[in-house]
Design a protein that fits this description.
- The protein is an alpha+beta fold and 194 residues long.
- It folds into 2 domains: 64 residues, 434 Repressor (Amino-terminal Domain) (Orthogonal Bundle), CATH 1.10.260.40; 115 residues, SOR catalytic domain (Immunoglobulin-like, Sandwich), CATH 2.60.40.
- It is 23% helix and 28% strand.
- α2 packs across α3.
- The chain starts with a helix and ends with a strand.
- This is Helix-turn-helix domain-containing protein.
- Pfam families: HTH_3.
- InterPro entries: Cro/C1-type_HTH (IPR001387), Desulfoferrodoxin_Fe-bd_dom_sf (IPR036073), Lambda_DNA-bd_dom_sf (IPR010982).
């Protein structure tokens, strides 16, 4: 651990929040001299204090200990670079337009890697009254089902959460070309071009 880097980060985060050392110390029920010591790189917060300090500054404990916040490269937020994350424990679904550090149920999530769907396994798409109606004959049991579908264009995402023991179906307004993603709980994330 680099106490100097950690101290500089604590200082920068405190200034970003427009807080004094005394204000941070009061929130943590410690002395402001302790905060000063950390910021000068003469010590490091005790492991029991790290979660509280991370919460005050709105960062992860990992980033505090690394002494730096990694900033994503600006890519303009293009939806075609969309990353999907799903918690294997609770099914929480998250998206990001670039790589992100996300966690749920105490575990760090990895972005799902999409594969092009093989012929014969595509979702069925038919046009009805200016909308696209999407269905599938995919198994929809608690052990094996499609958990979500998402139609993605350069600037839009239309997402539909799916549930076991329901028929997989949804409708969306016909738009320009894009990719239709779907996530099978057993086999992973797939896409097909529309």
């Amino acid at each position: 651990m680099d106490y100097q880097k950690i101290g500089v980060l604590i200082y920068e985060l405190r200034k970003e929040k427009n807080m004094t050392q005394k204000q941070v110390a009061q929130l943590m029920n410690i002395s402001d001299k302790t905060i000063s010591k950390w910021e000068r790189g003469l010590g490091c917060p005790d492991v029991s204090l790290l979660p509280e300090l991370a919460t005050i500054f709105g960062v992860s404990v990992d980033h505090l200990l690394a002494g730096e916040l990694k900033i994503n490269e600006q890519i303009g937020g293009n939806m075609r670079n969309l990353k999907f994350y799903e918690c294997p424990q609770c099914g929480n679904l998250m998206t990001a337009t670039a790589e992100a550090s996300l966690s749920c149920c105490g575990k760090t999530l990895q972005s799902l890697v999409p594969k092009k769907v093989e012929a014969g396994h595509e979702l069925n798409i038919e046009e009805i009254d200016g909308e696209l109606y999407v269905t599938s004959n995919h198994e929809m049991t608690k052990e094996h089902y499609i958990t979500f579908t998402a139609f993605v264009t350069g600037d839009t995402i239309l997402m539909s959460k799916q549930y076991p023991e329901w028929h997989m179906q949804f409708r969306f307004q016909k738009r320009k070309h894009g990719k239709l993603y779907f996530y099978c709980k057993k086999h992973g994330l797939f896409y097909q071009v529309i």
